[in-house]
Design goal:
This protein is mainly β. Helices cover 14% and strands 46% of the residues. The protein has 2 domains: 82 residues, Beta Barrel (Elongation Factor Tu (Ef-tu), domain 3); 97 residues, Beta Barrel (Elongation Factor Tu (Ef-tu), domain 3). It is built from 4 helices and 12 strands. The strands form 2 sheets. The protein has a 6-stranded antiparallel barrel. Strands 7-8-11-10-9-12 form a 6-stranded antiparallel beta barrel. The mean pLDDT is 93. Catalyzes the dismutation of two molecules of 6,7-dimethyl-8-ribityllumazine, resulting in the formation of riboflavin and 5-amino-6-(D-ribitylamino)uracil.
């Protein structure tokens, strides 16, 4: 489980393999001594397993494998060397739950339609992003509800059919990859866990 609070921004160093399995090397600032082989790390949304870890100056390089389901449902298949990705280590018992409950199981991919600067103050700009959700997922997104986009826990500002907007404050833009995002970019979308189960229960009741 995760919270959607990004704790580091990593960089893809290499992508090996073709077809339904890729091995991806990611450089980050995490202490390698704190990452066990087999640990779960959210990488711009998807929960991926560390299959190799090596220390490097200022942090470590860890490798993850992305299989068919991940490649089909997320943007991982588009990753190439140099891409920056949001990282979060999995929760430990007793950790502060500052975002919302995130599983790292991406539901689909949303597309950024527009983004605009709302304010440009002393601490930097705040920006509003409007995104289009896949039709099958739009019903799970509610105004003032939570959504996880590229591994970042965000509050939904507005909803209109399959379009929804989120507002990012200067701090979030600075410590995540959102400062790089532009119209036309695709981002990994995980809908709120509670909304998903509430809808399933409602369907089961007829």
């Amino acid at each position: 489980m995760f919270t959607g609070l990004v704790s580091d921004v990593g960089t893809v160093l290499s992508v090996e393999g073709e077809g339904d399995l890729r091995r991806i090397a990611i450089r980050c600032a995490y202490d390698p001594a704190g990452i066990a082989l087999g640990a779960s790390i959210a990488c711009s949304g998807p929960c991926l397993t560390a299959v190799a870890i090596a220390p490097t100056e200022g942090g470590c390089v860890f490798h993850v494998d992305a299989a068919a389901e991940t490649l089909a449902r997320t943007t991982v298949g588009e990753w190439a060397p140099g891409r920056r990705i949001n990282l979060e280590r999995s929760l430990k018992i007793g950790d502060e739950l500052g975002g919302h409950l995130v599983t790292g199981h991406v539901d689909g991919v949303a597309e950024i339609v527009t983004h605009e600067t709302v304010t440009d103050g002393a601490w930097g700009p705040s920006e509003r992003f409007t995104l289009r959700a896949p039709a099958a997922l739009a019903r799970f997104i509610a105004e003032k509800g939570s959504v996880c986009l590229d591994g970042t826990s965000l509050t939904v500002n507005t909803v209109a059919d399959d379009l929804f907007s989120v507002l990012l404050i200067p701090h979030t833009l600075q410590v995540t990859t959102w400062g790089d995002r532009r119209a036309g970019d695709r981002v990994n979308l995980e809908v709120d866990l509670i909304a998903r189960y509430a809808a399933r229960l409602s369907e089961a009741r007829g």
